[in-house]
Design goal:
With 312 residues, this protein is an all-alpha fold. The chain has one domain: ADP-ribosylation/Crystallin J1 (ADP-ribosylglycohydrolase fold), CATH 1.10.4080. Helix 1 packs antiparallel against helix 3, helix 1 packs parallel to helix 14 and helix 9 packs parallel to helix 13.
Length: 312
């Protein structure tokens, strides 16, 4: 029987991801931790942050959610076409591996072979857009790894990029089914996942969060580059250090420097699935570009998910 599936997690995850991306958009690539230090010392008011326009993180998540909702599941062919439409019409904030994969798709390479390989393929591009795949698996984890792989290889044919995305999708799926407990979530995730660099980093991030390490110390140690094992582990740290307070999760992620928008998008997708849409401050959501459309999309994805699993 399918598990409980919480509609508030669908809306919470997608909207919090977009908020993290929009709040982090003007901070991407920032190297200094001055603002984070000020925030930790109570000298920085998070409400002064600017909710800017979304970037690639939200745009590709929206494309993923639309595809899953339209196909009642993960279909690589449909999904790759939707990514390509976004690339041709906007492509704002696109990453290096995704750019090269989109060029291959444009040149007629099949979606299964379009994804980037090699060291630059270990980036964040799959983890940042995978939340809808996790939400689709709230009713059951069967097939989750396969679906994350289909979503991922379109742009990143890289084990670490796919594993990092699977870790995020697992959290979102467990949270959206109401099964997630913060106290044992990383232990259960370690049992579920293959051994990999990302899981080593996530386990370290969980220790740092439990030890109350200051974010100004933890985030540089976890890594500020754009590799998936850095960004996803630092998103876990920002989430696990204060999982009941989504504003703190997103603000810490944004002020953490490095790939700020993607870290905040990923942390937001997990925290939003866990806490639900009610946790999101109206003073942010009312400024968010396309907020109503995101809510409507989350409702379509929820209905497609429940319908697909009822037939399974
Ligand atoms: Mg971005």
């Amino acid at each position: 029987m399918a598990r409980k599936t919480r509609p508030e997690s669908f809306e919470g995850s997608l909207v919090a991801l977009a908020l993290g991306d929009s709040l982090g958009a003007t901070m991407e690539g920032y190297r200094s931790h001055d603002l984070l230090t000020a925030y930790e010392e109570g000298r920085y008011d998070p409400w002064q942050m600017q909710v800017a326009l979304w970037t690639d993180d939200t745009a590709m998540t929206v494309a993923t959610a639309q595809s899953v909702a339209a196909c009642n599941g993960m279909m690589g062919e449909d999904l790759s076409k939707r990514y390509l439409v976004w690339y041709r019409t906007s492509g704002r904030g696109i990453g290096r591996a995704t750019l090269r994969a989109m060029e291959r798709l444009l040149n007629g390479v099949p979606w299964e072979e379009a994804g980037e390989t090699g060291q630059w393929a270990a980036g964040n591009g799959v983890a940042m857009r995978v939340a809808p795949v996790g939400l689709f698996h709230a009713p059951g984890l069967v097939g989750l790894a396969e679906d994350v792989n289909i979503c991922g290889i379109i742009t990143h044919r890289n084990e670490e990029a796919i594993n990092a995305a699977l870790a995020v999708a697992w959290v979102v799926a467990e949270a959206a089914s109401g099964n997630l407990k913060i106290s044992n979530c990383v232990d259960k995730l370690l049992q579920y996942m293959p051994a990999c660099r990302t899981m080593d980093s996530i386990a370290r991030a969980a220790e740092m969060a439990a030890d109350r390490m200051p974010a100004t110390k933890a985030l540089p140690e976890l890594g500020l580059g754009g590799m998936a094992y850095e960004t996803v582990a630092s998103a876990f740290f920002c989430w696990l250090r204060n999982p009941e307070d989504i504003v703190d999760v997103i603000v810490t992620s944004v002020l953490g420097a490095g790939d700020a928008d993607t870290r905040a998008a990923i942390a937001g997708s997990m925290a939003g699935a866990y806490l639900g849409a009610e946790s999101l401050p109206v003073r942010w959501t009312r400024q968010l570009d396309g907020h109503r459309a995101l809510v409507a999309l989350s409702q379509r994805l929820y209905k497609a998910t429940v319908d697909a699993w009822a037939k399974a």
